[in-house]
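Take a sample.
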Amino acid sequence: MLKCIAIDDEPLALRQISAYIAKIPYLELAATFNNAIEAQQRLASERVDLIFVDINMPDLNGVDFVRALTDRPMVVFTTAYSEYAIDGFKLDAVDYLLKPFSFADFSRAAAKANSLYELRQGRLPAQPDSDSEATPKDREYISVKADYKVSLVRIADIVYIESEGEYVRMHLCDGSTITTL
């Protein structure tokens, strides 16, 4: 179960996020905040696994709030401003949801966070059609940021890696490629 908080200065947005969290069985809403300063005070005394945070807020914006955290939980930015996306991903955000977002989009972001959490805990995320027990090499994944999203790539699926200056291109066994900085 992922313990999470939501931070947004808009009451309607905060209610929507809270309602979405309530629909996802592996999320537990610890608290909601209408400003980042109150959330910062709470995080000084209580650890959470995931933060859903708006960016454009009075007093302290979401990017500066996340940047200031020393023991940073996973973060999903929920905002109406696409121009902060690069800043968000530079802070290792799990996802960046543009308002208004659907429950399906929110659910996908939560699933990414849950998969990342399970990988960090040493557990393999649930795989469909998994009849046999996974071999140790099948449990090894890497997280790759490309195309404004984070993907989990199974190491066994990488055929070869090619360097292109500042970029790396991974060639996968299904014929696809992933290019990342």
About this structure: The chain has two domains: 2-120, 136-180.
